[in-house]
Amino acid sequence: MVAQSRYLFVRDRSRYLIWMLRLIGMLDLVAIFAVLAPRTWLARINDGLGLGEFPVAPIAGYLARCTSFWYVSYGLLLWFVSYDIGKYRALITCLAAMLIAQGAIMIGIDLAVRMPIWWTVTEGPCCAGFGIVLLALQRGSRDGERQC
Q1: Tens digits of per-residue pLDDT, 76-95?
Q2: Fewer CB atoms inside 10 A, N or C side of the chain?
Q3: Tens of pLDDT along 25-48?
Q4: Domain boundaries, the chain
């Protein structure tokens, strides 16, 4: 009975890991908007967030769109690995560790460039938190388990 209940717990952890990968992936896929949006929309959103005037220089649009496309790519990758968490176990560990590092680095960048406090306390900690949750769920999931 104890072994069976442990198996159910592990199976649930695998299912939670799959859905967490897909949730983070979906959140990242929203960045496609910034890749495709006209510059005027990006400027309006930037202003609406209280981040000042959006620079006119081409590099600003380039960086906003390239960064957003990296988020989209990462989101697609998370969806892809979610279909076989056993096969991609090492990659999931790497991606989760990268999220944790990214979160810490983002906090440093946000502080250095003086982003608004609401931005700083949300962006980096959320990235790192997602990475920690992925590692915790993966630790409790079964090797080689394949489910969607």
Answers
A1: 999 999 999 999 999 999 99
A2: N
A3: 999 999 999 999 999 999 999 999
A4: 2-140
